[in-house]
Design brief:
- The protein has helices spanning about 105-110, 125-135, 145-150, 155-160, 180-190, 205-210, 220-230, 250-260, 285-295, 310-320, 325-330, 360-375, 380-390, 390-395, 395-405, 410-425, 435-445, and strands at about 10-15, 25-30, 40, 50, 60-65, 80-85, 90, 100, 115, 140, 145, 170-175, 195-200, 240-245, 265-270, 300, 320-325, 355-360, 430-435.
- It is α/β, with parallel strands linked by helices.
- Strands 9-10-12-13-14-15-16-17 form an 8-stranded parallel β-barrel, surrounded by 7 helices. A 3-stranded antiparallel sheet has the order 1-2-3, with no helix packed on it. The chain has a 3-stranded antiparallel sheet with strand order 6-7-8, with no helix packed on it.
- Strand 15, helix 9 and strand 16 form a beta-alpha-beta unit.
- Helix 12 (about 360-375) runs antiparallel to helix 16 (about 410-425).
- The protein is globular and about 60 Å long.
Length: about 450
């Protein structure tokens, strides 16, 4: 093992949140320089890569086998140690009176993020989250994780979740229908995220078969128990992502139930469980606005976000704290930075277009480089490449067909494919951003 003397002393502890088996924990002292201590979980068989810079702080350690960068647990900025629970109040360790906490305390601590990457199965993984963060996203969700499988299967955990120190604020989303199972999974993730989110909005058939997601809307007592279990036992707040009922009052009652149960952040997808076609059925922002008015916790909106102008419009019309984007951001990960496809752009009032020399090919190259650093499955990579290069493939379908025919892919082949598409002459102009959006984005930072 490499010399750790420049990083402080190391001790071994039998704990790791990612596995049922006994793991080791490296504990690094600050060395007397005033910096905080750091604990890093290490799988039983792994290599530790240390930053070669001797002046680096311990935060630069990277655990290769887990593909994660463990982070410091959340702390409360008070002079007295606090047992931090998001169940309405928190008790001082000295036994003095409880001090009130509300859902806004944590949200404001995170900087009140407005532009958020939605949870997407097999698509909102670490490399894609980092790409979106580079281009304007303030926060991001993990893909939906199945709580029971997450608890039982170490391979599932290591395959489906990874993070790094730049990957914050982070929402970890679970689907579940058993409060105890959900709590076990959530507690594993506490040190690595800023919210544990309960998926109450998935409308797909596999969610129906598994009895989770939006199909729990027919069993509100169970939904309430899921939220209460986490809110009373986690050190970080609980968020919920929901769909709406056909009846407005039912949706309002649902939102109030979740808030009363301990939900600290509510994401409202403005479609019902039966409205699965997002391209033909618009989300109902009026319902989202109504929910925002009746609850006292932060509310986020999901639905109808195709480009940055939709973001501004949604914020203005609903009054929500922020918006989530899913389908549109897969095609254009720079959406939150104000970029949009030129053929989508409709200008008026003398609006100016700024061509900042960014195109889908460049976004693919950046994404691939992140995948080389933080490995994911080839299936995920292939899907992202198809989404981002969809317009280019329509112009040159022969390149797409050759790509689909590959039995064994390499990063070198993918980089060469992007270069080849450019050489063939892609007729679409680069992604662009308008002068107004540049100004508004500058003001929001």
């Amino acid at each position: 093992m490499q010399n750790l003397s420049s990083y402080g002393s190391g001790l071994i502890f039998p704990v790791n949140p990612f596995s049922n088996s006994r793991h080791r924990l490296l504990h690094f002292d600050s060395g007397g320089d005033g910096s905080p201590e750091i604990c890093i979980p290490i799988p039983p068989i792994s290599k530790i890569h240390l930053n070669p810079n001797p002046n680096s702080k311990p935060f630069d350690l990277f655990v290769a086998a887990a593909q994660t960068q463990p982070l410091l647990p959340h702390t409360v900025p008070t002079d007295t140690e606090v047992n931090f629970r998001f169940s309405g109040t928190t008790t001082l360790a000295s036994g003095t009176d409880s001090i009130p906490l509300d859902a806004w305390t944590h949200w404001k601590k995170l900087g009140r993020p407005k532009f958020i990457v939605a949870p997407m199965v097999d698509h909102s993984e670490l490399p894609f989250r980092l790409l979106c963060r580079k281009y304007g996203a303030h926060a991001a969700y993990t893909p939906m994780l199945h709580a029971r499988v997450f608890n039982e299967n170490p391979r599932y955990r290591s395959r489906e979740f990874s993070t790094c120190k730049e990957d914050r604020p982070l929402f970890v989303q679970f689907c579940a229908n058993n409060p105890d199972v959900l709590l076990e999974a959530a507690q594993r993730m506490e040190p690595y995220c800023d919210y544990v989110d309960i998926n109450l909005g998935c409308p797909q058939n596999f969610a129906k078969r598994g009895n989770y997601g939006a199909y729990l809307m027919s069993n509100l007592p169970l939904v309430k128990s899921l939220v209460e279990k986490l809110a009373k036992n986690l050190c970080i707040p609980v968020s919920c992502k929901i769909r709406i009922f056909p009846d407005l009052q039912d949706t309002i009652n649902y939102a109030k139930l979740l808030e009363d149960a301990g939900c600290s952040l509510l994401v409202v997808h403005g479609r019902t469980i039966d409205q699965k076609d997002q391209k033909t059925i618009r989300a109902n922002w009026d319902v989202i606005k109504a929910v925002r008015k009746v609850v006292s916790i932060p509310v986020l909106a999901n639905g109808n976000i195709r480009h940055i102008d939709d973001v501004w419009l949604c914020l203005e019309e609903t009054g929500v704290e922020g918006v989530l984007s899913a389908e549109a951001i897969l095609e254009n990960p720079a959406l939150f930075a104000g970029y949009r496809l030129t053929h989508e752009l409709v200008l008026g009032n003398g609006e100016m277009v700024k061509d900042l020399k960014l195109d889908q090919g460049e976004l693919v190259v950046e994404y691939l480089k992140l995948c080389e650093r933080y490995p994911v499955s080839w299936g995920i990579i292939i899907s992202h490449v198809h989404k981002m290069l969809g317009d280019w493939f329509r112009i040159h379908p022969n390149v797409r067909d050759e790509f689909n025919a590959q039995k064994s892919l390499t990063f070198e082949y993918l980089y060469e494919m992007v270069f080849r598409l450019r050489e063939l002459g892609v007729t679409l102009r680069p992604l662009c951003v308008t002068h107004t959006n540049l100004h508004r984005l500058h003001c929001i930072k």
